[in-house]
Structure formats: structure tokens, C-alpha cells
Amino acid sequence: MPSIRSKPLVWAYLGLGSNLGCRRRHLQFAVRALARHGSVAARSRMIETEPVDCPDGGPFLNACVCLESDLSPRALLELALRIERRRGRRRSARNAPRTLDIDILLYEGERRSDADLVIPHPRMCERRFVLEPLAEIAPEVIHPARLVTVRELLQQLPDPRARHARAVH
Description:
By secondary structure, the chain is of the alpha+beta class. It is 26% helix and 24% strand.
């Protein structure tokens, strides 16, 4: 008998990052935890990047995932915060080093601006460490405010040698 869903499935694109502890394990944990609340439809490779606006931390590992789920944006934010806390994330200061950071980048073309939840992510368009892995899994997805593709946003960034990112195997 087929299951009946009360809510439609939506696509949410999330950015993952870590620059403390076992960075790879933190990101892998996040992917597994997210998968328990939907289907991870796509996952980028992990890239190592220099910290941006995080002066006290070492290099980050970053990745992006596409989660197909029936979670609302608010429920997805609450899930992301729970997953971060489970990996020891403490929000002591803005842009402090972190074991795990999960950001909602895009959510099914939605635009919203609440005090604690802004979609699309307000700084994603200026961050190569977000756009590079996102373009791997969603190059043709349209940014709902800028009305250009993720690939085009990446191409609009300054020279990539200015902020070097390399794949981690």
C-alpha cells in the first residue's frame, strides 16, 4: 500500500562547514543525520578552504547537500541547530571556529526574511566556499532573489586564486 504524505516534498540546499576537531567526521555525521529526515538527493565533494571572517580558526572543510524532505524551513532550521549541538557546536561569538555549521542556502525557490532565518542565505552569493560545492550539485538552480543560476553566481565571483579551495579525498 503506498504511503500518503500530508505535505509535499521540497528541495532544500544546505551548506556544511567545519574547522574544529575531526572535520570530515563532523560533515559525514551531518549528512547522515539529515538523511534521517528526508533523502539526500545530492552531495558535493568536500573542499578545504581558508577561513573567511573567522580569524581564530584553521582551514575549513565545506560541502553542500540537497535534501528532499517535507520539513518546513523553520523545522529544517531547528533540525540543523540540533545536529550542530550534537557535534559540540557552541555559539559563543559570531564567526567563531566551529565543529559544525549547517546553513540553509536555498529552499524550493522561497524567499523569507525572519529575524533568525533568511532564505536565500544572505551571504551565499559572495562566498566561493559555498558556491563551488553548490554548483557541483545544483548548477542550474535559480537564486530566487538574483534570478541567475548558481553556476552564474560562481562565475561572477572574483578570480578563484584569490581564495584557494582544493578538493580533499
